[in-house]
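Trying the structure run again after the queue cleared.
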Amino acid sequence: MEENTTTQFNLKTIENGHHKIKYRGVKNLKCPFDYVMYQMIINEIKPDLIIEIGTYMGGNALYMADLLEIIKNGEVHTIDIENYVESDLVNNHPRIKRFLAGYENYDLSSTEGFQKIIVIDDGSHQYLDVLRAFEKFNKVVSTNSYYVIEDGILTELGYGESHHGGPLKAIEEIINNNNEYKIDRSWCDFFGQNATFNPNGYLIKK
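Done. Tokens:
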């Protein structure tokens, strides 16, 4: 029997696959391109704090916390509105601190004493939420570190209208109105022009 060696995939098949991704058995929901790039960014910046807006099941917080464990430095503050986490690996990880009152109620005094901070917005992806989260958190990001706005790909996938323009609309406003940040094309275009679920979303603080 002749084997089928045809290669066939597109953005929709990658979207379907990313919903199945798990890290150590915990749902992660991360595009494989971004999944790979995060470990490089963390190794490069060596942050002592990563703030993640949007915990969901906790797979990405666990992944990042394990990466911090490898470099023997840092912690993850992961924020959500409701508790979806079921894994003891997440609940008991010494480098993970969880906050359950939404990004609006995260106390920025919790960032005091940290020198290298990355912020990742993987929250609702609604246009206004993305803008408001950026307005709150962008000042705590350290120079030459990153504020990552995830899932601008929603527009390309046809969900832009339901998210009122979503992350891409917010990113455009941020870049036009904030001269402290620029789009880091080295990550956005790592696998090809905006071959990421975070198109234009890797923002580096100057």
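The beta strands are 22-23, 26-27, 49-53, 75-79, 96-99, 117-121, 146-149, 181-183, 202-205. Worth checking whether this holds up in the mutant runs.
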